[in-house]
Amino acid sequence: MNVTGEERPGVGGPPPGEPGFHSGFVAILGRPNVGKSTLVNRLVGHKVSIVSDHPQTTRRRITGVVGLPECQIVLLDLPGFQRPFDSLTRRMQTAVDEALREVDAALVMLNATEAFGGGDRYVLEAVAAAALPGVIVLNKVDLIDGRRLGARLEEARALAGGAAVHAVSALRGDGLGAVVGELAVAMPPGPRYFPEGQSSDQPLELLVAELVREQALRRTHDEVPHAIAVEVSAITERDDRPLVEIEALLIVESESQKGILVGKGGRVVKAVGSAARQEIEAVFGVQVFLDLRVKVRRRWRRDERYVERLL
Ligand code: GDP
Ligand code: MG
After folding, report:
1. Per-residue pLDDT tens digits for 45-77
2. Mutation test of ligand 1: which of 28, 33, 54, 166 has the most ligand atoms closer than 8 Å to its C-beta?
């Protein structure tokens, strides 16, 4: 993670290529909850993408970078789709088709614990139609027993038109070496898009805000449904010691929501702040001081929509 928040190079074109270096972009495709964010986090080694039991929590496309000695693989984790993928609205198809236009390979995730459906079929066919290298994984195999795994792998292979399928557990990290190997082979010659050691191109504020928001949602469940926004007002690196100071606001729409989020004696906001601080420290690899407050901004969501309409 690059704590100084350097921009991704690109304004003046990609950096000059190194001979023998390969790089490319990979779209991670799959139904909500299949484990896309978990996989990105696992492969990148840092937490760059929100993981949640609620399929809608990934609000933006998040990039993770896997750095190998001679190769850089840039992962694009697509936003969770709003409805069951099987209903296949045009919006979902457009999102998949757009993602496939700008990548060098696709990684299709299937869920070992659920029946396959129209959404899985659509994604596999779209990858085949785009003539992209596709790496297919059957995730969550830690949740099924060995006998069932064989049958599920057969089904997955049949669905993928006979292509190879990797059995993996994104959560435990099982089977991922072969996946990275297959992706690396699919990368064309190309530049090092990101400085070595940088694992995400998200602005730092956004990453911090997502981590705080995840913890707030986790601790309020459906009591403050999606009415929480996070604003990160300052991220300061101390010169005198390895410490990053962060000021952030949890923004809600009403006093009653504020009450829930603050909790008795500030218990809830303290728990959110402490959990978020630990997550942020894990990403930055440095001690973090997080100043987190709750603020009411009436109808911020309406205002946000209003602003969007003006643009
Ligand atoms: P996404 O919607 O595809 O991005 O899915 P997430 O990565 O947010 O994961 C959804 C849920 O599945 C989370 O609760 C994860 O912890 C869980 N999950 C993801 N991968 C695995 C896995 O390999 N095994 C198990 N047991 N759970 C997993
Ligand atoms: Mg996700």
Report:
1. 654 554 444 443 333 455 678 888 788 888 887
2. 33
Q: How far is CA 8 from CA 163, 170, 193, 195, 308, in A?
A: 35, 27, 8, 8, 25
User: How far apart, in whole angstroms, are the C-alpha atoms of residue 279 and residue 281?
Assistant: 5
Indicate the top mutation candidate among 171, 172, 217 to test ligand 1's pocket, ranked by most ligand atoms within 8 A of CB.
171
pTM over 0.70? The answer is: no
Write out the two tokens for 104.
């060098």
Whether 63 contacts 202, CB under 8 Å: yes
The CA distance from 213 to 7, in Å, is 23
List the alpha helices (DSSP H) in 160-266.
176-186, 204-220, 255-262
pLDDT digits (tens, 9 = 90+) for 10-43: 334 444 567 888 988 899 998 888 998 889 888 8
